[in-house]
Sequence to fold (174 residues):
Amino acid sequence: MSLGLKLIPRIALFSALIYVFSWGTAYLPNVSLIFFIVFTAGVMWGLIPGLLVGALGMGLWTGLNPYGPAAFPIMLAQIGGSSLSGAVGAAFRRAQWHMKTGRALTFALVLSALICTLLFYLPVNFVDAWLFQPFWPRFAAGLLWALISVVSNIVIFAVLFRPIRSRFIMRGMV
Fold:
């Protein structure tokens, strides 16, 4: 789908949803709907819109975070990493995994949640450890902390994708 007039407000809406839901989950450490929202944008509208939703939404959240903005290199890693969830969503659709059912769909969603989470946390933890040293202990601690996100994203993807897919398939969007 080209970046048409109908798609621009959708990208803006999904970016705003990232910001709003991030406020709602701010007190749950490493539990976030960001990955799922960006992934869903990639599934529904393709690569470029998925990347834009991730970049704009995370840019809003990391820049206007209630705990303060992230250091600029970390902010760039967060924006880049979250955008990649849109690429995973676009690949998910291209592989026709969104049409699978049962265990095959669950496996595809678990794998997608894992990939989305790792594509975010590996660069973010790398940049964080590089900036704030000592590198390996900080990087390892960051990856252990990211396990919370892995588990929560697996649950979020597996629970929320089916009803959203059903809704959008009925409207011809997926």
